[in-house]
What we know:
Radius of gyration: 25 Å
Number of helices: 17
Oligomer: single chain
Number of domains: 4
CATH topology of the largest domain: endopeptidase fold (from Nostoc punctiforme)
Largest sheet: 6 strands, antiparallel
Bound molecules: 2-acetamido-2-deoxy-beta-D-glucopyranose
CATH class of the largest domain: Alpha Beta
Low-confidence stretches: 1-29, 34-39
Strand content: 15-25%
Amino acid sequence: xxxxxxxTITILLISLSNPINSFKLPFQVNDVLPVLPRQISWxxxxxxxxxVDLLPSFVGTISPTNGSVVWNGACFGGNEARMEFTEGDxxxxxxxxxxxxxxxxxxxxxxxxYVFATPYRITWDYYFTAREHTLAFESWEEPAELEYVKQHGxxxxxxxxxxxxxxxxxxxxxxxxSNTKYGQNANLAFLKDHMGATFETRxxxxxxxxDPNDVHSGDFLAVSKIRGRWGxxxxxxxxxxxxxxxxxxxxxxxxxxxxxxxxxxxxxxxGEEIIVVIPWDEWWELALRDDSNPQIALLPLHxxxxxxxxxxxxxxxxxxxxxxxxxxxxxIFSWIDTIGENYPPPIDAHLVISVMSMWxxxxxxxxxxxxxxxxxxxxxxxxxxxxxxxxxxxxxxISFDELLTIPENDDWVYSDGKSTTCVAFILQIYKAAGVFxxxxxxxxxxxFTIRDAYMLKIFENNQTRLPKWxxxxxxxxxxxxxxxxxxxxxxxxxxxxxxxxxNEYCPSLPPTYxxxxxx
Length: 519
Ligand SMILES: *[C@@H]1O[C@H](CO)[C@@H](O)[C@H](O)[C@H]1NC(C)=O
Ligand SMILES: *[C@@H]1O[C@H](CO)[C@@H](O)[C@H](O)[C@H]1NC(C)=O
Ligand SMILES: *[C@@H]1O[C@H](CO)[C@@H](O)[C@H](O)[C@H]1NC(C)=O
Protein backbone atom coordinates (compact mmCIF):
# COMPACT_ATOMS: atom_id res chain seq x y z
CA UNK A 1 0.00 0.00 0.00
CA UNK A 2 1.37 3.44 -0.81
CA UNK A 3 2.37 5.66 2.08
CA UNK A 4 -0.05 8.56 1.54
CA UNK A 5 -2.95 6.15 1.53
CA UNK A 6 -1.72 4.52 4.71
CA UNK A 7 -1.43 7.88 6.42
CA THR A 8 -4.89 8.85 5.29
CA ILE A 9 -6.36 5.64 6.62
CA THR A 10 -4.57 6.04 9.92
CA ILE A 11 -5.85 9.60 10.37
CA LEU A 12 -9.28 8.46 9.41
CA LEU A 13 -9.32 5.59 11.86
CA ILE A 14 -8.07 7.85 14.65
CA SER A 15 -10.76 10.36 13.91
CA LEU A 16 -13.38 7.62 13.86
CA SER A 17 -12.34 6.19 17.17
CA ASN A 18 -12.69 9.66 18.75
CA PRO A 19 -16.22 10.68 17.93
CA ILE A 20 -15.70 13.99 19.71
CA ASN A 21 -12.63 15.16 17.82
CA SER A 22 -10.19 16.96 19.99
CA PHE A 23 -8.17 18.11 17.00
CA LYS A 24 -9.50 19.56 13.83
CA LEU A 25 -8.72 17.61 10.65
CA PRO A 26 -7.65 19.54 7.56
CA PHE A 27 -10.40 17.82 5.62
CA GLN A 28 -13.73 16.12 6.12
CA VAL A 29 -13.99 12.39 6.49
CA ASN A 30 -16.26 12.07 3.52
CA ASP A 31 -13.64 13.68 1.28
CA VAL A 32 -11.21 10.83 1.56
CA LEU A 33 -13.66 8.00 1.22
CA PRO A 34 -13.27 7.70 -2.53
CA VAL A 35 -9.57 6.95 -2.29
CA LEU A 36 -10.00 4.29 0.35
CA PRO A 37 -10.45 0.61 -0.49
CA ARG A 38 -14.09 -0.32 -0.59
CA GLN A 39 -13.76 -2.69 2.35
CA ILE A 40 -13.03 0.34 4.49
CA SER A 41 -15.09 3.00 2.81
CA TRP A 42 -18.43 1.19 2.81
CA UNK A 43 -18.53 0.38 6.50
CA UNK A 44 -17.59 4.01 7.18
CA UNK A 45 -20.38 5.31 5.01
CA UNK A 46 -22.77 2.85 6.55
CA UNK A 47 -21.92 4.08 10.00
CA UNK A 48 -22.37 7.71 9.09
CA UNK A 49 -25.09 7.82 6.54
CA UNK A 50 -28.56 6.58 5.95
CA UNK A 51 -29.34 4.35 3.01
CA VAL A 52 -30.67 7.30 1.05
CA ASP A 53 -27.27 9.01 1.24
CA LEU A 54 -25.83 6.17 -0.76
CA LEU A 55 -27.90 6.96 -3.80
CA PRO A 56 -26.16 8.66 -6.67
CA SER A 57 -27.51 12.16 -7.11
CA PHE A 58 -28.77 13.23 -10.47
CA VAL A 59 -26.97 16.31 -11.80
CA GLY A 60 -28.80 16.78 -15.06
CA THR A 61 -28.73 15.79 -18.68
CA ILE A 62 -26.21 17.22 -21.09
CA SER A 63 -27.14 17.49 -24.73
CA PRO A 64 -25.66 19.34 -27.68
CA THR A 65 -28.87 21.30 -28.21
CA ASN A 66 -29.36 22.56 -24.67
CA GLY A 67 -26.50 24.90 -23.80
CA SER A 68 -24.70 24.02 -20.57
CA VAL A 69 -25.65 22.59 -17.21
CA VAL A 70 -24.41 24.19 -14.01
CA TRP A 71 -24.28 22.55 -10.59
CA ASN A 72 -22.35 22.21 -7.34
CA GLY A 73 -20.59 18.96 -6.51
CA ALA A 74 -19.53 17.59 -3.17
CA CYS A 75 -15.99 18.93 -3.62
CA PHE A 76 -16.10 21.44 -6.43
CA GLY A 77 -18.51 24.35 -6.63
CA GLY A 78 -19.56 26.09 -9.81
CA ASN A 79 -19.26 23.16 -12.17
CA GLU A 80 -20.35 23.54 -15.74
CA ALA A 81 -20.72 21.03 -18.56
CA ARG A 82 -21.69 21.09 -22.20
CA MET A 83 -21.57 18.66 -25.04
CA GLU A 84 -20.85 18.57 -28.76
CA PHE A 85 -21.43 15.93 -31.38
CA THR A 86 -18.35 14.74 -33.26
CA GLU A 87 -18.13 13.29 -36.73
CA GLY A 88 -16.26 10.62 -38.55
CA ASP A 89 -16.10 7.09 -37.18
CA UNK A 90 -16.33 3.71 -38.90
CA UNK A 91 -19.99 3.27 -38.06
CA UNK A 92 -21.01 6.55 -39.63
CA UNK A 93 -22.92 7.59 -36.51
CA UNK A 94 -20.39 9.98 -35.09
CA UNK A 95 -19.74 10.40 -31.40
CA UNK A 96 -19.70 13.15 -28.80
CA UNK A 97 -17.47 15.06 -26.42
CA UNK A 98 -18.44 16.40 -23.02
CA UNK A 99 -16.53 19.46 -21.79
CA UNK A 100 -16.67 19.74 -18.04
CA UNK A 101 -15.26 22.65 -16.06
CA UNK A 102 -14.80 22.23 -12.32
CA UNK A 103 -14.49 25.16 -9.93
CA UNK A 104 -12.35 25.40 -6.80
CA UNK A 105 -12.18 22.35 -4.56
CA UNK A 106 -12.87 22.93 -0.91
CA UNK A 107 -9.97 20.73 0.22
CA UNK A 108 -6.90 19.17 -1.37
CA UNK A 109 -7.99 15.59 -0.78
CA UNK A 110 -11.40 16.02 -2.23
CA UNK A 111 -12.55 14.23 -5.35
CA UNK A 112 -15.82 14.09 -7.22
CA UNK A 113 -16.82 10.94 -9.02
CA TYR A 114 -19.29 11.14 -11.88
CA VAL A 115 -21.17 8.56 -13.90
CA PHE A 116 -22.29 9.40 -17.43
CA ALA A 117 -25.03 7.18 -18.77
CA THR A 118 -27.35 6.50 -21.64
CA PRO A 119 -29.46 3.35 -21.75
CA TYR A 120 -26.75 1.98 -24.06
CA ARG A 121 -23.62 2.68 -22.10
CA ILE A 122 -22.33 3.72 -18.75
CA THR A 123 -18.96 5.31 -18.12
CA TRP A 124 -17.40 7.38 -15.38
CA ASP A 125 -14.65 9.80 -14.54
CA TYR A 126 -13.35 11.43 -11.40
CA TYR A 127 -11.85 14.85 -10.84
CA PHE A 128 -9.22 15.95 -8.35
CA THR A 129 -8.25 19.29 -9.80
CA ALA A 130 -10.09 22.37 -10.93
CA ARG A 131 -9.80 22.80 -14.71
CA GLU A 132 -11.53 21.88 -17.93
CA HIS A 133 -11.88 18.14 -18.43
CA THR A 134 -13.10 16.35 -21.53
CA LEU A 135 -14.83 13.03 -21.89
CA ALA A 136 -15.13 11.56 -25.37
CA PHE A 137 -17.63 9.08 -26.73
CA GLU A 138 -15.77 7.80 -29.78
CA SER A 139 -18.83 6.39 -31.44
CA TRP A 140 -22.51 5.80 -30.63
CA GLU A 141 -23.39 2.13 -30.28
CA GLU A 142 -26.31 2.20 -32.70
CA PRO A 143 -28.60 4.72 -34.38
CA ALA A 144 -31.03 4.38 -31.45
CA GLU A 145 -28.39 5.69 -29.05
CA LEU A 146 -27.70 8.72 -31.22
CA GLU A 147 -31.43 9.37 -31.36
CA TYR A 148 -31.72 8.97 -27.59
CA VAL A 149 -28.90 11.44 -26.96
CA LYS A 150 -30.44 13.96 -29.36
CA GLN A 151 -33.75 13.78 -27.52
CA HIS A 152 -32.77 13.17 -23.90
CA GLY A 153 -29.06 13.90 -23.64
CA UNK A 154 -26.51 12.05 -21.54
CA UNK A 155 -27.51 11.67 -17.89
CA UNK A 156 -24.92 12.72 -15.33
CA UNK A 157 -24.83 11.40 -11.78
CA UNK A 158 -22.64 12.48 -8.89
CA UNK A 159 -21.71 9.29 -7.07
CA UNK A 160 -21.62 8.90 -3.32
CA UNK A 161 -18.12 8.77 -1.92
CA UNK A 162 -16.67 5.32 -1.83
CA UNK A 163 -17.98 4.10 -5.16
CA UNK A 164 -14.64 4.40 -6.91
CA UNK A 165 -13.30 1.03 -5.82
CA UNK A 166 -16.45 -0.64 -7.01
CA UNK A 167 -16.43 1.12 -10.34
CA UNK A 168 -12.77 0.49 -11.01
CA UNK A 169 -13.21 -3.21 -10.46
CA UNK A 170 -15.96 -3.18 -13.06
CA UNK A 171 -13.57 -1.97 -15.75
CA UNK A 172 -13.41 -5.31 -17.51
CA UNK A 173 -17.18 -5.47 -17.71
CA UNK A 174 -17.77 -2.53 -20.04
CA UNK A 175 -16.44 -3.88 -23.37
CA UNK A 176 -18.87 -6.80 -23.03
CA UNK A 177 -21.64 -4.63 -24.41
CA SER A 178 -19.91 -3.59 -27.61
CA ASN A 179 -21.48 -5.04 -30.75
CA THR A 180 -18.15 -5.81 -32.44
CA LYS A 181 -15.69 -8.66 -32.81
CA TYR A 182 -13.79 -7.04 -29.96
CA GLY A 183 -16.95 -7.03 -27.83
CA GLN A 184 -17.55 -10.71 -28.55
CA ASN A 185 -13.97 -11.57 -27.65
CA ALA A 186 -14.44 -9.64 -24.41
CA ASN A 187 -17.44 -11.81 -23.59
CA LEU A 188 -15.61 -15.05 -24.34
CA ALA A 189 -12.58 -13.94 -22.33
CA PHE A 190 -14.75 -12.91 -19.40
CA LEU A 191 -16.58 -16.23 -19.31
CA LYS A 192 -13.32 -18.16 -19.63
CA ASP A 193 -11.69 -16.21 -16.80
CA HIS A 194 -14.58 -16.01 -14.40
CA MET A 195 -16.48 -19.23 -15.04
CA GLY A 196 -13.94 -21.56 -16.60
CA ALA A 197 -15.84 -21.79 -19.89
CA THR A 198 -13.80 -23.19 -22.80
CA PHE A 199 -15.47 -22.17 -26.10
CA GLU A 200 -13.95 -24.88 -28.27
CA THR A 201 -14.62 -24.41 -31.96
CA ARG A 202 -16.95 -27.06 -33.41
CA UNK A 203 -16.50 -28.69 -36.78
CA UNK A 204 -18.74 -27.41 -39.59
CA UNK A 205 -21.65 -27.16 -40.27
CA UNK A 206 -22.48 -24.80 -37.45
CA UNK A 207 -26.18 -24.81 -38.34
CA UNK A 208 -28.23 -28.03 -38.06
CA UNK A 209 -30.91 -29.04 -40.55
CA UNK A 210 -33.72 -29.80 -38.17
CA ASP A 211 -36.46 -32.34 -38.88
CA PRO A 212 -39.45 -31.17 -36.82
CA ASN A 213 -40.71 -34.77 -36.67
CA ASP A 214 -37.89 -35.59 -34.24
CA VAL A 215 -38.76 -32.69 -31.92
CA HIS A 216 -41.43 -33.05 -29.22
CA SER A 217 -43.52 -30.94 -26.90
CA GLY A 218 -41.52 -29.89 -23.89
CA ASP A 219 -38.09 -30.09 -25.50
CA PHE A 220 -36.03 -27.28 -23.99
CA LEU A 221 -34.07 -24.72 -26.00
CA ALA A 222 -30.99 -23.31 -24.26
CA VAL A 223 -29.66 -20.15 -25.89
CA SER A 224 -26.34 -18.45 -25.25
CA LYS A 225 -25.78 -15.00 -26.79
CA ILE A 226 -22.22 -13.75 -26.90
CA ARG A 227 -22.24 -10.40 -28.67
CA GLY A 228 -23.71 -6.90 -28.43
CA ARG A 229 -26.04 -5.58 -25.75
CA TRP A 230 -27.79 -8.89 -25.16
CA GLY A 231 -24.48 -10.72 -25.20
CA UNK A 232 -23.08 -8.45 -22.48
CA UNK A 233 -26.25 -8.67 -20.43
CA UNK A 234 -26.28 -12.46 -20.69
CA UNK A 235 -22.60 -12.71 -19.79
CA UNK A 236 -23.24 -10.91 -16.51
CA UNK A 237 -26.34 -12.95 -15.85
CA UNK A 238 -24.41 -16.17 -16.49
CA UNK A 239 -21.66 -15.05 -14.17
CA UNK A 240 -24.07 -14.14 -11.40
CA UNK A 241 -26.19 -17.28 -11.66
CA UNK A 242 -23.58 -19.81 -12.77
CA UNK A 243 -25.63 -20.77 -15.82
CA UNK A 244 -23.82 -21.47 -19.09
CA UNK A 245 -26.85 -20.32 -21.08
CA UNK A 246 -28.50 -16.92 -20.88
CA UNK A 247 -31.89 -17.44 -22.46
CA UNK A 248 -34.39 -20.26 -22.90
CA UNK A 249 -37.45 -21.25 -24.93
CA UNK A 250 -39.57 -24.39 -25.23
CA UNK A 251 -40.84 -26.52 -28.13
CA UNK A 252 -44.58 -27.16 -28.44
CA UNK A 253 -46.36 -29.54 -30.83
CA UNK A 254 -50.01 -28.91 -31.68
CA UNK A 255 -52.62 -31.63 -32.42
CA UNK A 256 -51.84 -31.46 -36.15
CA UNK A 257 -48.18 -32.15 -35.44
CA UNK A 258 -46.98 -28.63 -36.26
CA UNK A 259 -43.99 -27.39 -34.29
CA UNK A 260 -44.16 -24.12 -32.29
CA UNK A 261 -41.90 -22.31 -29.86
CA UNK A 262 -43.02 -20.78 -26.57
CA UNK A 263 -40.77 -17.95 -25.43
CA UNK A 264 -40.82 -15.31 -22.69
CA UNK A 265 -38.58 -12.39 -23.62
CA UNK A 266 -39.38 -12.24 -27.32
CA UNK A 267 -38.90 -8.78 -28.77
CA UNK A 268 -41.98 -7.52 -30.64
CA UNK A 269 -42.09 -4.80 -33.32
CA UNK A 270 -42.39 -2.12 -30.64
CA GLY A 271 -39.19 -3.29 -28.99
CA GLU A 272 -41.02 -4.66 -25.93
CA GLU A 273 -40.09 -8.01 -24.45
CA ILE A 274 -43.17 -10.20 -24.29
CA ILE A 275 -44.35 -13.82 -24.08
CA VAL A 276 -45.21 -15.48 -27.41
CA VAL A 277 -46.04 -18.83 -28.96
CA ILE A 278 -44.82 -18.65 -32.58
CA PRO A 279 -44.24 -21.17 -35.40
CA TRP A 280 -40.87 -22.92 -35.29
CA ASP A 281 -39.83 -21.63 -38.73
CA GLU A 282 -40.33 -18.03 -37.67
CA TRP A 283 -38.35 -18.53 -34.45
CA TRP A 284 -35.51 -20.31 -36.24
CA GLU A 285 -35.35 -17.64 -38.94
CA LEU A 286 -34.95 -14.95 -36.27
CA ALA A 287 -32.25 -16.97 -34.50
CA LEU A 288 -30.26 -17.31 -37.72
CA ARG A 289 -30.42 -13.55 -38.31
CA ASP A 290 -29.74 -12.57 -34.69
CA ASP A 291 -26.67 -10.31 -34.48
CA SER A 292 -26.03 -11.34 -30.88
CA ASN A 293 -24.53 -14.55 -32.38
CA PRO A 294 -26.61 -17.08 -30.41
CA GLN A 295 -25.35 -20.60 -29.71
CA ILE A 296 -28.38 -22.87 -29.34
CA ALA A 297 -28.91 -26.35 -27.89
CA LEU A 298 -32.03 -28.52 -27.90
CA LEU A 299 -32.47 -30.55 -24.70
CA PRO A 300 -35.02 -33.30 -25.44
CA LEU A 301 -37.16 -34.50 -22.53
CA HIS A 302 -36.61 -38.07 -21.32
CA UNK A 303 -39.06 -40.52 -22.95
CA UNK A 304 -40.53 -41.42 -19.54
CA UNK A 305 -41.25 -37.77 -18.80
CA UNK A 306 -42.66 -37.33 -22.28
CA UNK A 307 -45.04 -40.24 -21.59
CA UNK A 308 -46.49 -38.29 -18.63
CA UNK A 309 -46.78 -35.05 -20.64
CA UNK A 310 -50.32 -33.55 -20.75
CA UNK A 311 -50.18 -31.51 -23.94
CA UNK A 312 -53.65 -30.00 -23.47
CA UNK A 313 -52.70 -28.53 -20.10
CA UNK A 314 -49.34 -27.31 -21.44
CA UNK A 315 -51.00 -25.44 -24.32
CA UNK A 316 -53.70 -24.02 -22.05
CA UNK A 317 -51.10 -22.47 -19.79
CA UNK A 318 -48.88 -21.21 -22.63
CA UNK A 319 -51.76 -19.55 -24.46
CA UNK A 320 -53.05 -17.98 -21.24
CA UNK A 321 -49.70 -16.17 -20.93
CA UNK A 322 -49.23 -15.25 -24.59
CA UNK A 323 -48.89 -11.48 -25.16
CA UNK A 324 -48.01 -10.73 -21.52
CA UNK A 325 -44.79 -8.86 -20.69
CA UNK A 326 -41.53 -10.58 -19.83
CA UNK A 327 -40.91 -11.02 -16.11
CA UNK A 328 -38.66 -8.10 -15.28
CA UNK A 329 -40.06 -8.06 -11.77
CA UNK A 330 -38.63 -11.32 -10.67
CA UNK A 331 -35.60 -11.42 -12.93
CA ILE A 332 -33.12 -10.10 -10.43
CA PHE A 333 -34.72 -11.63 -7.41
CA SER A 334 -34.28 -15.20 -8.55
CA TRP A 335 -30.57 -15.01 -7.80
CA ILE A 336 -30.57 -12.93 -4.65
CA ASP A 337 -31.43 -15.73 -2.26
CA THR A 338 -29.21 -15.61 0.73
CA ILE A 339 -27.71 -12.47 2.16
CA GLY A 340 -24.14 -11.80 1.21
CA GLU A 341 -23.53 -15.02 -0.60
CA ASN A 342 -25.04 -14.18 -3.93
CA TYR A 343 -23.20 -11.15 -5.18
CA PRO A 344 -19.99 -12.03 -6.89
CA PRO A 345 -17.51 -9.29 -6.03
CA PRO A 346 -17.53 -6.41 -6.91
CA ILE A 347 -21.31 -6.38 -6.94
CA ASP A 348 -22.96 -5.70 -3.63
CA ALA A 349 -26.29 -4.39 -2.43
CA HIS A 350 -24.99 -0.82 -2.65
CA LEU A 351 -24.19 -1.20 -6.29
CA VAL A 352 -27.57 -2.81 -6.92
CA ILE A 353 -29.27 0.13 -5.28
CA SER A 354 -27.19 2.63 -7.29
CA VAL A 355 -28.02 0.97 -10.54
CA MET A 356 -31.69 0.89 -9.60
CA SER A 357 -31.73 4.58 -8.84
CA MET A 358 -29.86 5.58 -12.01
CA TRP A 359 -32.16 3.41 -14.03
CA UNK A 360 -35.17 4.99 -12.37
CA UNK A 361 -33.96 8.38 -13.57
CA UNK A 362 -33.37 7.40 -17.17
CA UNK A 363 -36.19 4.97 -17.80
CA UNK A 364 -38.84 5.72 -15.19
CA UNK A 365 -41.46 3.49 -16.75
CA UNK A 366 -39.12 0.52 -16.91
CA UNK A 367 -37.88 1.10 -13.39
CA UNK A 368 -41.33 1.01 -11.90
CA UNK A 369 -41.74 -2.17 -13.89
CA UNK A 370 -38.46 -3.74 -13.06
CA UNK A 371 -38.10 -3.43 -9.35
CA UNK A 372 -40.23 -0.86 -7.57
CA UNK A 373 -43.31 -3.04 -7.75
CA UNK A 374 -41.39 -6.13 -6.69
CA UNK A 375 -39.91 -4.28 -3.70
CA UNK A 376 -43.35 -2.93 -2.77
CA UNK A 377 -44.68 -6.50 -2.87
CA UNK A 378 -41.99 -7.56 -0.44
CA UNK A 379 -42.91 -4.74 1.96
CA UNK A 380 -46.64 -5.20 1.49
CA UNK A 381 -46.86 -1.57 0.37
CA UNK A 382 -48.13 -0.01 -2.82
CA UNK A 383 -46.81 2.61 -5.20
CA UNK A 384 -43.73 3.71 -3.24
CA UNK A 385 -40.77 4.88 -5.34
CA UNK A 386 -37.20 3.88 -4.50
CA UNK A 387 -36.80 6.67 -1.92
CA UNK A 388 -40.09 5.75 -0.30
CA UNK A 389 -39.06 2.11 -0.22
CA UNK A 390 -35.76 2.93 1.47
CA UNK A 391 -37.55 5.09 4.02
CA UNK A 392 -40.03 2.35 4.82
CA UNK A 393 -37.27 -0.28 5.05
CA UNK A 394 -35.42 1.89 7.53
CA UNK A 395 -38.54 2.49 9.62
CA UNK A 396 -39.02 -1.25 9.95
CA UNK A 397 -35.40 -1.74 10.98
CA ILE A 398 -34.47 -4.10 8.17
CA SER A 399 -31.59 -3.55 5.79
CA PHE A 400 -31.87 -3.20 2.05
CA ASP A 401 -29.96 -6.49 1.68
CA GLU A 402 -32.59 -8.26 3.72
CA LEU A 403 -35.39 -6.74 1.71
CA LEU A 404 -33.83 -8.03 -1.50
CA THR A 405 -33.64 -11.57 -0.20
CA ILE A 406 -37.32 -12.04 0.63
CA PRO A 407 -38.24 -14.85 -1.81
CA GLU A 408 -40.51 -14.25 -4.75
CA ASN A 409 -43.95 -15.83 -4.58
CA ASP A 410 -45.37 -17.39 -7.76
CA ASP A 411 -48.82 -16.08 -6.87
CA TRP A 412 -47.94 -12.38 -6.76
CA VAL A 413 -49.79 -10.52 -9.48
CA TYR A 414 -48.13 -7.36 -10.82
CA SER A 415 -49.89 -4.44 -12.52
CA ASP A 416 -49.06 -5.98 -15.91
CA GLY A 417 -50.03 -9.48 -14.88
CA LYS A 418 -48.16 -12.37 -13.38
CA SER A 419 -44.47 -12.04 -13.93
CA THR A 420 -42.56 -14.82 -15.68
CA THR A 421 -38.97 -14.85 -16.81
CA CYS A 422 -37.92 -16.99 -19.74
CA VAL A 423 -37.15 -20.01 -17.62
CA ALA A 424 -40.02 -19.55 -15.16
CA PHE A 425 -42.42 -19.56 -18.12
CA ILE A 426 -41.09 -22.94 -19.28
CA LEU A 427 -41.14 -24.45 -15.81
CA GLN A 428 -44.75 -23.30 -15.37
CA ILE A 429 -45.57 -25.17 -18.56
CA TYR A 430 -43.75 -28.21 -17.15
CA LYS A 431 -45.73 -27.86 -13.93
CA ALA A 432 -49.01 -27.73 -15.84
CA ALA A 433 -48.03 -30.64 -18.08
CA GLY A 434 -47.26 -32.90 -15.13
CA VAL A 435 -43.45 -33.08 -15.37
CA PHE A 436 -43.09 -32.63 -11.60
CA UNK A 437 -45.85 -35.11 -10.75
CA UNK A 438 -47.22 -34.83 -7.22
CA UNK A 439 -44.59 -32.34 -5.97
CA UNK A 440 -45.65 -29.69 -8.51
CA UNK A 441 -47.39 -27.63 -5.82
CA UNK A 442 -44.25 -27.28 -3.74
CA UNK A 443 -42.08 -25.99 -6.60
CA UNK A 444 -41.73 -22.19 -6.75
CA UNK A 445 -40.52 -21.78 -10.32
CA UNK A 446 -39.55 -18.12 -9.92
CA UNK A 447 -36.71 -19.27 -7.66
CA PHE A 448 -35.13 -21.23 -10.53
CA THR A 449 -32.26 -19.94 -12.60
CA ILE A 450 -31.51 -21.31 -16.05
CA ARG A 451 -28.81 -23.48 -14.52
CA ASP A 452 -31.29 -24.94 -12.03
CA ALA A 453 -33.54 -25.82 -14.96
CA TYR A 454 -30.99 -27.66 -17.10
CA MET A 455 -29.65 -29.47 -14.04
CA LEU A 456 -33.06 -31.12 -13.54
CA LYS A 457 -32.91 -34.85 -14.22
CA ILE A 458 -35.77 -34.88 -16.71
CA PHE A 459 -33.87 -34.90 -20.03
CA GLU A 460 -32.82 -37.63 -22.47
CA ASN A 461 -29.87 -39.55 -21.03
CA ASN A 462 -29.17 -41.92 -23.92
CA GLN A 463 -27.03 -40.30 -26.60
CA THR A 464 -27.99 -42.87 -29.22
CA ARG A 465 -31.59 -41.70 -29.03
CA LEU A 466 -30.72 -38.09 -29.97
CA PRO A 467 -31.92 -37.12 -33.46
CA LYS A 468 -29.39 -37.86 -36.22
CA TRP A 469 -29.07 -34.22 -37.26
CA UNK A 470 -27.76 -33.22 -33.81
CA UNK A 471 -24.22 -32.05 -33.09
CA UNK A 472 -22.95 -32.48 -36.69
CA UNK A 473 -21.39 -35.83 -35.79
CA UNK A 474 -19.63 -34.40 -32.71
CA UNK A 475 -20.22 -37.22 -30.22
CA UNK A 476 -19.08 -35.29 -27.15
CA UNK A 477 -22.37 -33.68 -26.18
CA UNK A 478 -25.12 -35.38 -24.13
CA UNK A 479 -27.65 -32.96 -25.67
CA UNK A 480 -28.26 -31.64 -29.16
CA UNK A 481 -26.54 -28.46 -30.31
CA UNK A 482 -28.25 -26.98 -33.36
CA UNK A 483 -26.49 -23.64 -33.86
CA UNK A 484 -23.19 -21.98 -33.17
CA UNK A 485 -19.48 -22.02 -33.84
CA UNK A 486 -18.58 -22.89 -30.23
CA UNK A 487 -19.38 -26.17 -28.49
CA UNK A 488 -21.88 -25.44 -25.72
CA UNK A 489 -21.23 -26.67 -22.21
CA UNK A 490 -23.90 -27.20 -19.58
CA UNK A 491 -22.05 -28.48 -16.50
CA UNK A 492 -24.12 -30.83 -14.34
CA UNK A 493 -26.70 -31.14 -17.07
CA UNK A 494 -29.50 -33.63 -16.28
CA UNK A 495 -28.24 -34.63 -12.82
CA UNK A 496 -30.63 -33.35 -10.16
CA UNK A 497 -33.87 -35.17 -9.25
CA UNK A 498 -36.62 -32.60 -8.57
CA UNK A 499 -37.62 -32.30 -4.88
CA UNK A 500 -40.08 -30.21 -2.87
CA UNK A 501 -39.18 -26.56 -2.21
CA UNK A 502 -36.02 -26.86 -4.26
CA ASN A 503 -33.79 -23.83 -4.91
CA GLU A 504 -35.46 -21.55 -2.39
CA TYR A 505 -32.30 -20.95 -0.37
CA CYS A 506 -29.39 -21.76 -2.64
CA PRO A 507 -26.30 -19.58 -2.68
CA SER A 508 -24.60 -19.10 -6.03
CA LEU A 509 -21.03 -17.88 -5.97
CA PRO A 510 -18.40 -17.98 -8.70
CA PRO A 511 -16.17 -19.58 -9.74
CA THR A 512 -17.52 -23.01 -8.72
CA TYR A 513 -21.14 -22.10 -7.85
CA UNK A 514 -21.14 -24.96 -5.37
CA UNK A 515 -24.64 -25.95 -4.52
CA UNK A 516 -25.42 -27.54 -1.12
CA UNK A 517 -27.65 -30.59 -1.52
CA UNK A 518 -31.28 -29.87 -0.78
CA UNK A 519 -31.02 -26.08 -0.58
C1 LIG B 1 -33.47 21.06 -22.46
O1 LIG B 1 -33.87 21.98 -21.47
C2 LIG B 1 -35.25 22.02 -21.23
C3 LIG B 1 -35.54 23.15 -20.26
O2 LIG B 1 -34.56 23.25 -19.29
C4 LIG B 1 -35.72 20.67 -20.70
O3 LIG B 1 -37.11 20.69 -20.49
C5 LIG B 1 -35.38 19.61 -21.72
O4 LIG B 1 -35.71 18.33 -21.20
C6 LIG B 1 -33.89 19.65 -22.05
N1 LIG B 1 -33.61 18.73 -23.12
C7 LIG B 1 -32.57 17.92 -23.09
C8 LIG B 1 -32.37 17.09 -24.30
O5 LIG B 1 -31.80 17.89 -22.17
C1 LIG C 1 -54.86 -32.89 -19.10
O1 LIG C 1 -55.17 -31.54 -18.81
C2 LIG C 1 -56.49 -31.20 -19.08
C3 LIG C 1 -56.63 -29.69 -18.91
O2 LIG C 1 -56.02 -29.25 -17.71
C4 LIG C 1 -57.43 -31.98 -18.15
O3 LIG C 1 -58.78 -31.62 -18.40
C5 LIG C 1 -57.21 -33.47 -18.40
O4 LIG C 1 -57.96 -34.24 -17.49
C6 LIG C 1 -55.73 -33.83 -18.27
N1 LIG C 1 -55.54 -35.20 -18.72
C7 LIG C 1 -54.98 -36.12 -17.95
C8 LIG C 1 -54.83 -37.46 -18.57
O5 LIG C 1 -54.65 -35.89 -16.81
C1 LIG D 1 -29.94 -46.42 -25.69
O1 LIG D 1 -30.90 -46.48 -26.71
C2 LIG D 1 -30.66 -47.51 -27.64
C3 LIG D 1 -31.68 -47.37 -28.77
O2 LIG D 1 -32.97 -47.17 -28.24
C4 LIG D 1 -30.78 -48.85 -26.92
O3 LIG D 1 -30.52 -49.91 -27.83
C5 LIG D 1 -29.76 -48.90 -25.79
O4 LIG D 1 -29.95 -50.09 -25.02
C6 LIG D 1 -29.94 -47.69 -24.87
N1 LIG D 1 -28.85 -47.67 -23.93
C7 LIG D 1 -29.05 -47.55 -22.62
C8 LIG D 1 -27.83 -47.49 -21.76
O5 LIG D 1 -30.17 -47.46 -22.13
